[in-house]
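Fig. S4 source data, part A: sequence.
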Amino acid sequence: MKRFVTSESVTEGHPDKICDQISDAVLDAIIKDDPDARVACETMTTTGLVTIVGEITTKTYVDFQRLVRDTIKDIGYTKSDYGLSWEYCAVLVAIHEQSQDIALGVDEAKGHEQGAGDQGMMYGYACNETPQFMPLPIMLAHGLTRRLSEVRRRKVLPYIRPDGKSQITVEYDDGKPKRVDVIVVAAQHDPDVPREQIIRDIRKEVIEPVCGRWMDAETKVFINSTGRFVVGGPQGDSGVTGRKIIADTYGSIGRHGGGAFSGKDPSKVDRSAAYYARYMAKNVVAAGLADRCEIQLSYTIGVAKPTSIYIETFGSGKVSDEKIMGLLQKHFDASPKAMIAELKLKRPIYRKTAAYGHFGRDDDPDFTWERTDKAKLLRKEAGLK
């Protein structure tokens, strides 16, 4: 049976991704000097303006103005005609301490293990259709936006500006990816560049290197389909932290608990438990216990033990879900303190997670939730050869 699955990605210069990166740059600056800080930082941007708000409890000092400007500069907003300039934009800061009511349940104390930073449910997903144990559509979508950034930064296409998006539709046959059906790329560009040149260059330098092996004569390609994309970034659309949660995760395959990641320290299970659930699911699939696996964890604020753990293998399991669940409960501890320690989450690693997806990044050892170090053990104890 045929089905079609679509995923999207955005470049680091997209307005929402600017905000995610600023929020995580704030987190990195704080956690580098104060690993036990409590950080919940939200960012908003529009033409010529960045505003950061949130609740932060820390012993260290951060020059928010300089941090925001350095992040904007690194992303590529270096010219005033981009609508956001690192030198001349306004930066507003409205930060206050986290509520002590929350700290009562979250902070570790004598006789009280560190509790979850909030209630909610978090999902992790893995499948065996790519080497990264990720769905193919989101990996191709991220590949396109990464390539857009690369040709801009390396000046292969010097007229490309920081904002950009991609969208991929993959045709599946009997549950396996067969071909790419539709490719959409929106690339911000300098004025007065002929549309024909943009289409030709993007197809040659961006689309074909990433998607070529999946394309055929029937693949439909749309490049800057309005005909012009000069006004972009915060000048074209306002940006807010946490508005790209599906692009951040599995690209419409698998469920999402609704909590964003960026700007949150690892005591917030929105982030740490989503990472840990991915770690669990990936090890299950890497062990060959299932072709697809989704893990749901849920928590209540101030309590260490998850209120529920649920597994779904979509009929692809090589052993029963009950057996897999028993192995997960034996070898994975999803309490906040244990997750943070096992994945080494009290480190300044977060800015680089804030663009091109939080998962499938096994080329970087800082993404500890991408390890498959328990797969061999799970396979052995499941009785598989």
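Fig. S4 source data, part B ends here. The mean pLDDT is 95.
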